[in-house]
Specification:
Blueprint (H helix, E strand, L loop, with lengths): L4 H13 L2 H8 L3 H15 L4 E2 L5 E2 L1 H23 L9 E7 L1 H13 L4 E7 L5 H6 L5 E4 L8 E15 L1 H7 L6 H6 L2 E3 L6 H9 L8 E3 L3 H9 L5 E4 H10 L3 E2 L6 E10 L7 H14 L9
Parallel strand pairs: 3-4, 3-5, 7-8
Antiparallel strand pairs: 1-2, 5-11, 6-9, 6-10, 6-11
Helix pairs in contact: 1-2, 1-3, 1-4, 2-3, 5-12
Length: about 300
């Protein structure tokens, strides 16, 4: 089946921007033209592609077709580079699943090294980012395991080191006799979202099994650090984000020498790998500069 480029562009714009009006403005056409193109594409595919709500969201088929449109843009940009045809008319769009902690510590540097690419970052837990690749909804992902997803190439990146940290005042209040199982069951912790298992893993590894402390849900890497410094709870924070706080005494490790190391990999769709070679090179270079290879001392 061959798709009309203008219809694909309309679908991608609606799903990216969330409304027909915003898509029309971005593509310099009327909302009626966007509606007609989407209707024609749905008639061609024989199904609904957009959930018409506020914001508009894609059906499973709609998301797959929108990603196909973005892939075409990436492949065309790759061809233009190979044939020395100059830059494309518009920047290529690339959808990637990546962890919030990676964005907060090292991934933005890789993005900055990539000209001619507009990034659409899907933030998810490192243990679940590979699922986006499996569903065909992204072209690449930062994952927490090296086992390649079917149809993808996997590149080791290094490790993210996480330290269980809290403020000195929090430690005095909740752990006056040390980090015992009884105290850990009562002390509030910080959890990124329902998929975040780092706190539970650390407790099971270093404190005791089946502990379920009260938790604050806080889906922000920087807010995790800020909340720990403010004494709201303890959490597993990337060593890069708490290094200064530990050095200045604003934060302390709950237990010494108990950092958790999470190996990260860059996985990219094999079909798209040649077109994404510059992005892959930038990601690997940034990871090499920023991701530690050994556990932090005193953590």
């Amino acid at each position: 089946m061959q798709f009309d480029p203008s219809q694909l562009a309309a679908l991608a714009a609606v799903l990216r921007l969330g409304s027909f009006d915003a898509a029309a403005h971005a593509l310099s056409v009327t909302p009626s033209a966007i509606s007609q193109r989407i209707k024609a594409l749905e008639e061609k595919t024989g199904g609904t592609l957009i959930h018409r709500a506020t914001p508009c969201t894609g059906t499973e088929a709609g998301l797959r077709i929108a990603k196909h449109a973005e892939d075409i843009g990436l492949l065309e940009a790759h061809l233009a580079r190979d044939l020395s045809l100059g830059s494309a008319d518009a920047p290529a769009r690339l959808r990637i699943a990546v962890t919030a902690d990676s964005v907060a510590t090292w991934f933005v540097e890789a993005m900055a090294a990539c000209d001619g690419v507009l990034f659409d970052l899907v933030l998810d837990d490192q243990d679940h980012s590979a699922d986006w690749l499996k569903r065909g909804e992204v072209s690449a992902a930062v994952t927490a395991h090296g086992r390649a997803v079917a149809g993808c190439d996997s590149h080791p990146l290094g490790e993210m080191h996480y330290i269980a940290t809290a403020s000195p005042a929090f430690m005095t209040r909740w752990f006056p006799d040390g980090v015992t199982p009884a105290a850990a069951a009562r002390a509030p912790c910080l959890v990124f979202n329902a998929k975040d298992g780092l706190q539970r893993l650390w407790l099971e590894t270093h404190v005791g099994p089946r502990l379920s402390p009260p938790a604050h849900f806080m889906a922000s890497s920087q807010a995790f650090v800020d909340a720990a410094r403010a004494g709201i709870g303890w959490g597993m924070n990337p060593e890069q984000l708490v290094r200064r706080g530990l050095r200045r005494g604003k934060l302390v490790a709950l237990l010494p020498d108990t950092a958790l190391s999470v190996p990260l990999s860059w996985q990219v769709s094999r079909i798209m790998a040649p077109a994404l070679a510059p992005v892959t090179a930038a990601v690997l270079q940034s990871a090499q500069r920023n991701l530690p290879r050994t556990a932090p001392k005193g953590a």
